Model the fold of this input.
Amino acid sequence: VTIDAILLVGGEGTRLRPLTLTTPKPMLPVAGVPLVAHQLARARDAGIDHVVLATSYKAELFEAAFGDGSAMGLELEYVTEVEPLGTGGGIRNVLDRLRAAPEDPVAVFNGDVLSAHDLSEQIRVHVAGGAAVTLHLSEVSDPRAYGCVPTDPTGRVTDFLEKTPDPVTNRINAGCYVFRRAVIDSIPAGRPVSVERETFPALLAEGALLLGFLDAGYWLDLGTPEAFVQGSRDMVRGVIGSSALTGEPGDSLVLDGASVAPDAAVVGGSCVGVGARVGPGAVVDGSVLFAGAFVDAGATVRDSAVGRDAVVGTDALVEGAVLGDGAHLGSGNELLRGARLWPSAVIADRSLRFSPGP
Ligand code: GTP
Done:
């Protein structure tokens, strides 16, 4: 049997700016491979063979990267929203591409999550329970930024509390759903709809059966720069696996055509992108260097993302910060604590510090 999946990849990824000004969040490199490639591999490994990508923001980049999907052993289709329709609207908008019969399951993924949960088991639980929708739930230490999803002892969802300051449970909506196809038919067409704010609360109010599928596997929402860098680091180290990776987990991943000076240190799960360079005596720790990035001699980059072709000058310090594509941080500067340098911005040598300096 063919199992359909929908991958939601149309968001602007505002929290990840400036990286997402040039690259949509689902296309950001995680251990050197676009985040979506990991999700597609996971879907394929769970027996899914047909995936519709619901695109909007920078839509053309997805088809350019993945084509018809045959290289991954999948059949891929792309549907682009002229005006972004939100998560529910994006799902409804691809209805005519689904092959599932009305009672069949359709898997739906947010395109910004790194997850090792057991999707095959989630589909099985959904079908066995006869649910309208089965939601993957993950337990997190701070649920306030997520949809909080309490369930009764049978797994039935009893409430859906989007981003509440006072969560009643630490089980949250992990952004992977199995829908009965007929439920997708019932989402209103042609206007923006949020599944989190509209569809799920309405289904609950109607008395529909929503099941929670709790899974303790690795789960991370890569919505912020810190989380994005952590996700890449975890995958380089093998904390989460992916069949989209080649090679073995380790302390660092240096991609083809990259160069690292013999006395430089690339550690802590760092990934050095295609054609990127790390100069003599530099330290790159727990960070992501995009393709063509350059970390010059004596510089230190920790827990940070350095965008495509961006430059970290000699002896500069970058910690917990982001350089957009083509940004240039001159020699001897410091960029710390959540600072974000916009694409192509230039900081002159020795002109920005977070400390008195020498
Ligand atoms: P932020 O702006 O930082 O909140 O990120 P985002 O735009 O990606 O929003 P959010 O993280 O809430 O989105 C969850 C998932 O739904 C992501 O994979 C988005 O790509 C996707 N998504 C969000 N809005 C839309 C939309 O209007 N259309 C489609 N097709 N996908 C969307």
